[in-house]
Structure formats: structure tokens, C-alpha cells
Amino acid sequence: MTRTGLYPGSFDPIHNGHLDIIGRAVKLVDRLVIGVAVDTGKSALFSLEERMEIAREETAALQGQAEIVVHGYQGLTINAARALGAQVLVRGLRAFSDFEHEFQLTAMNQQLDRDIETVFLMADPRHQAVASRLVKDIVSMGGDVSRFVPAGVAARLAAKFAPA
Ligand code: ADP
């Protein structure tokens, strides 16, 4: 049986914390779907196509450890997981503050689909504090994000915030 995991998120844009989690998740599944949410619940800096393209580029090096597929999805994550044939939902825990929200989400998802298990992975401490929102804030104010995102992502961010 092919074990499929779905790692959902906004990925606006993908950063070193996400890539750390992906690097761990590929050890657990045969196929990892990076689910890029159409609805981010906030206005995204990058379009869905851009977020997917960046995710594809930055995970290319991890291909082979497991098959990595980047997929856009709309609506409930648990429905996307079922449609993709995923047995596992992968979530990253950043800080204690994530716990309550994730705890609730997982409890609800357990009711919605009893066959899909959520696994939580922790990034290396160097990457735990990285968040897309903060990365965007730093770039918008002219700061250096090279420790938080791969070079290709830093270049795309710089282009977004470059004066017209
Ligand atoms: P969301 O919009 O759902 O917060 P994100 O794109 O920010 O989605 O994150 C997607 C997933 O990656 C979530 O499970 C989130 O907890 C996890 N994640 C984000 N940043 C980090 C990080 N620095 N370390 C570990 N996990 C992270």
C-alpha cells in the first residue's frame, strides 16, 4: 500500500520551517502532497500559482526520498485529504501557542473522518520561529531574510516589494 500524507497550508511563501517539516515528513510516507490552500483566510502576497510554483521549486531537492506532489485545494482540508487518498495529515508545531488551535482542529477532524490520522512534527529549533507573515514584514521593511527562506524565495520576495 502506498502511504500518502497531506501537508496543508498557505505557503505564502514556503520558508525554512516548512521545508524542515517536509524533510521529516518524507521519511514517514511514500507520497507527500503539499496542499496549497486556495483560501488562506488572509490576503495572500503570492497567487495560488506562484505559491505552488515556489513550493515545487524548493522541494525538488527532496524528490526521491518520497514522491512529492504540490496540489492546490479549496475547502475543508479533511475533504482534500480523503479525495487524495491520504491516510495521514501532517502538521508542524511551531510553538506552544499553536497547540490549542491544532488540538481543536485535530479533535474536529477526528470526528469528520476516523480513518485519517494527524501527525505533528517539530522543526529544528533554528526554524521553529519562522513564519511567512514575519518574513513578509521583514522584507517589506528592507530587512534580510536569507536565514529564513531559500535564496530563490528571497529573490521572489525582493521582487514583490521592489519599488515600481
Ligand atoms: P497556515 O496558513 O495554516 O498557518 P502555514 O503555511 O503558515 O499555514 O503553515 C502550514 C503548516 O506548517 C502548519 O501546520 C504550520 O503549523 C506549519 N509551520 C509553519 N511554520 C512552521 C515552523 N516554523 N516550524 C514548524 N512548522 C511550521
Q: How would you portray this structure in words?
A:
The chain has 164 residues and is of the alpha/beta class. It is built from six helices and five strands. A five-stranded parallel sheet has the order 3-2-1-4-5, sandwiched between helices. Helix 2 links the parallel strand 2 and strand 3 (67-73). The longest helix is centred in the middle third of the chain and has 17 residues, at 96-112. The mean pLDDT is 94. Bound molecules: adenosine-5'-diphosphate (ADP). Adenosine-5'-diphosphate (ADP) is lined by residues 9-11, 17-18, 21, 40, 91-92, 94, 98, 123, 127-128, 130-132.
What is this structure, in a nutshell?
The protein is of the alpha/beta class. It contains 6 helices and 5 strands.
Heterogens? adenosine-5'-diphosphate
Mean pLDDT: 94
Helix content range: 40-55%
The low-confidence runs, each spanning 5 or more residues with pLDDT under 50, are none
Draw up the topology in text.
Elements: E1 4-9, H1 16-25, E2 31-37, H2 48-59, E3 67-73, H3 77-83, E4 88-93, H4 96-112, E5 117-122, H5 132-140, H6 151-161
Parallel strand pairs: 1-2, 1-4, 2-3, 4-5
Adenosine-5'-diphosphate is lined by residues 9-11, 17-18, 21, 40, 91-92, 94, 98, 123, 127-128, 130-132.
